[in-house]
Amino acid sequence: MRMRWKLAGLAGLAGVAATGVVLARKRRAQRDYQPDELRDRLHRRLAEVSRNRPEPAWPSEESVTPATDHGQG
Length: 73
Known about the structure:
- By secondary structure, the chain is mainly alpha-helical.
- The protein has a domain at about 10-50.
- The chain is built from two helices and no strands.
- The N and C termini lie far apart (about 80 Å).
- The model has no long low-confidence stretch (mean pLDDT about 80).
């Protein structure tokens, strides 16, 4: 019975270690950017998304007329 618990514990440790390795590799794959470089990249992405964004299907705020008080109050 003790052997089963030992094997279960070792399997758990192996799982934790494997997860740590995967996360470390993923972190290493990410690049550290300087603040100015990151800001430039974000601005470029925003400009690209803004260009490719379709017009909304609902009316804009300027074209909506405000609700009126229909004699209540």
